[in-house]
User: What shape does this take?
Amino acid sequence: MHYTYILFSQSANKYYIGATRDDLQERLRRHLSNHKGFTGKHADWIIVYHETFESFSEALAREKEIKKWKSRKKIHQLISK
Assistant: This one.
């Protein structure tokens, strides 16, 4: 399975939108590791939303769709469904 997911960091008060071919919990573990990327700056990311897809291309397309919104309000609406 492939996933589009949304993470939230309380300390940064930010969302991160991504897609993965991997196990979702393993991908979260890598986000929480100490690295130089965007999510490496904070260690309190949690998965607040995810969708499952048969193909990675579908998951990637959904990730891009959500990122194009550039709207915290729309992300809140998606998460609260």
Q: What stands out?
A: The chain has a mean pLDDT of 95. Strands lie at 2-9, 14-20, 45-53. Helices lie at 24-32, 56-69, 72-80. The first strand starts at residue 2 and ends at 9.
